[in-house]
Write a structure and sequence with these properties.
Elements: E1 25-29, E2 32-37, E3 40-42, E4 44-48, H1 57-60, H2 63-69, E5 74-80, H3 81-84, H4 94-105, E6 109-119, H5 128-131, E7 139-141, E8 147-151, H6 156-177, E9 183-190, H7 203-210, H8 215-223, H9 230-238, H10 247-251, H11 255-280, E10 285-290, H12 313-319, E11 325-329, H13 334-344, E12 352-353, H14 359-373, E13 377-378, H15 391-410, E14 416-421, E15 427-432, E16 435-441, E17 460-468, E18 471-477, E19 479-485, E20 492-504, E21 507-513, E22 525-527, E23 531-540
Parallel strand pairs: 4-5, 4-13, 5-6, 6-9, 9-10, 10-11, 12-13
Antiparallel strand pairs: 1-2, 2-3, 7-8, 14-17, 15-16, 16-19, 17-18, 18-23, 19-22, 20-21, 20-23
The structure holds (2R,3S,4R,5S)-2-(hydroxymethyl)piperidine-3,4,5-triol (DGJ).
(2R,3S,4R,5S)-2-(hydroxymethyl)piperidine-3,4,5-triol binds next to loops.
């Protein structure tokens, strides 16, 4: 087996200065962006804790070993502003220190969520000294002048208080973890967006909205005009591609303009918070979006205005260049997962999925995200919840961990891809290496005497890695896979050898040799239960 892949770029993201080259950072490999931890690319097989779990070391004691046994290598845990800065300027990191220590002792990495100005739109996590001083720390207003418990994006006092606390947090993380790198990635805020209206309608917001679109945004849009995310470019184009004017003059009147206005203001604010943290310790940082199927976005009350949605990627990039990744939280069905991962993988945005489903769905979605979109991480939400132990997720993470060296070596090349077959998408053809692979969803086995089942097996996904001209590793479940050549030479393909097996310490250990009924008499691979198969092919006329 010959890999022949070289790491071809050392471009460092995250504004990491040269002295910090060994701290976790993002690095390009081909078309992919990888997360480098302790000098090596890393796939985060993660799980996000419930919001309040990591506020108590006692609560977490029985949880840590379960997470390690469940084959996670990374845990996403919240750090709340009110817990670390109960009085202005007085910080208490004792719980965080325990969380880092306990994660480390279970060989788990951490992603920290900075629950600060906003969490699921609202401002429930700032300390009381912020919440009570509503004159110094203003809130937004919606229609009819109603105030919402949601800190204004347009207040320097709000932003600077958050940024000071975040800087203190990152300074502390550097002190306690700058050498060991248990903490590998930071989420700044959580699912920001306006609720109750399409935008802030406080006097200060109205004034900004009626003023000119900031020059920095206009310059960015003009510079990147031909590479803008198509949905947003369309909004600008429909309004005439104007290069100056008020928000409604440049982008037209409507929800899309209100969303862009809020996105700009959130990005400016969150970007400055991230910048203050990176000045202390420049770990890679992401923001997450509550992504909803279009039908569930219902303006004006529920317009998801301002969140880092894929269609607003350019506005976020222009306003918050300090943020490395815009991440989708993806619930919903597999078709929605496929479309959302595609839309967030545009324009060079690395894919990190902090929230999704667990179970069998989680296992197959993770495989798909790593193989198809070069994801740096995948995480079901509520990993310490009542579902535990999540044996399906554990099997999936175990399989991905076996494949991780191969996946990491092939990310960013055309020798690896993946499919996730959804309800609207029961078969798919895809080119990988020298062959076109056709994946078709399996149906559940018919019961004796019962009519043939109509449904496909749930969560059918597979990853395909070409490790030679006629040689593949294929891993997944719920489908058959057939091969046809697309390079010059004989036009038909046959299965030469098919082995099931596993990787043990990076070495392939074959199990059964599959043929006969297990390969459709040599016609296709059959992936019923989650597993890995090693395939060699021949060609004939
Ligand atoms: C999305 C949020 O980002 C999480 O913190 C959590 O509140 C979940 N929703 C709950 O389903």
């Amino acid at each position: 087996m010959k890999l022949g892949i070289v790491f071809c770029s050392t471009l460092v993201f995250s504004f990491a200065p040269a002295w910090a080259a060994d701290i976790p950072h993002l690095q390009k490999q081909g078309t992919a962006t990888q997360l480098i931890v302790d000098g090596k690319p890393f796939l985060a097989l993660a799980g996000e804790l419930h919001n309040s779990s990591a506020t108590s070391l006692e609560y977490m004691q029985p949880v840590w070993p379960k997470l390690a046994e469940a084959k996670l290598n990374t845990v996403i845990a919240g750090v709340s502003w009110n817990q670390i800065e109960p009085q202005e300027g007085k910080f208490d990191f004792s719980v965080l220190d325990g969380v880092i220590r306990d994660a480390r002792s279970h060989s788990l990495r951490l992603v920290l969520i900075w629950f600060a100005s906003w969490k699921n739109a609202l401002s429930s996590y700032p300390p009381d000294w912020v919440k009570k001083d509503f004159k110094r720390f203003p809130r937004i207003q919606v229609q009819s002048g109603k105030t919402i418990e949601l800190l204004s994006t347009l207040s320097d006092a709000n932003r600077d208080a958050d940024a000071r606390a975040f800087a203190a947090l990152m300074r502390h993380v550097k002190q306690v973890d700058g050498q060991q790198h248990t903490v590998i990635l930071i989420q700044v805020e959580n699912e920001v967006n306006v609720i109750g209206d399409t935008r802030d309608r406080s006097p200060v917001a109205n004034k900004a909205f009626e003023g000119p679109v900031p020059k920095d945004l206009m310059d960015y849009l003009q510079k990147h005009k031909d590479a803008l995310i198509s949905e947003f470019r369309q909004v600008w184009e429909t309004a005439g591609f104007k290069t100056s004017g008020t928000w409604e003059e440049v982008f037209g009147k409507g929800v899309a303009t209100d969303q862009a206005f809020m996105a700009w203001n959130y990005a400016r604010y969150v970007g400055r918070v991230a910048e203050a943290g990176k000045a202390e310790y420049p770990l890679p940082m992401y923001v997450n979006a509550a992504v909803m199927p279009f039908a569930r976005v219902q303006p004006p009350a529920n317009a998801h205005s301002g969140g880092p949605l894929a269609q607003l990627m350019d506005v976020w990039r222009a306003g918050g260049p300090q943020i490395d990744i815009l991440s989708p939280d993806i619930y919903g069905n597999d078709d929605f997962f496929v479309s959302t991962t595609a839309s967030f993988s545009r324009s060079g945005n690395p894919l990190f999925i902090p929230e999704s489903n667990g179970g069998r769905e989680g296992a197959t979605r993770a495989l798909y995200a790593f193989g198809r979109h070069n994801a740096v991480g995948f995480s079901p939400f509520g990993i310490d919840g009542s579902r535990a132990p999540d044996t399906d997720l554990t099997s999936g993470y175990d399989l991905i961990a076996q494949l991780a060296p191969l996946i990491l070596a092939h990310q960013g090349t055309d020798t690896m891809s993946a499919v996730l077959l959804g309800q609207n998408n029961p078969s798919q053809k895809i080119q990988v290496g020298n062959y076109t692979l056709e994946a078709a969803a399996l149906r559940p086995r018919a019961m004796p005497g019962a009519p043939p089942p109509q449904a496909t097996l749930p969560s059918a996904a597979a990853i395909f890695i070409a490790v030679g001209p006629d040689e593949y590793f294929v891993a997944g479940s719920g489908m058959t896979v057939s091969f046809s050549p697309h390079t010059p030479g004989p036009s038909l393909a046959g299965l030469s050898t098919v082995e099931e097996g596993s990787f043990v310490n990076g070495r392939w250990v074959p199990g059964r040799q599959l043929a006969g009924d297990e390969t459709g008499q040599g016609d296709y691979l059959s992936l019923r239960n989650l597993g890995i198969q090693h395939v060699t092919l021949y060609r004939y006329e």
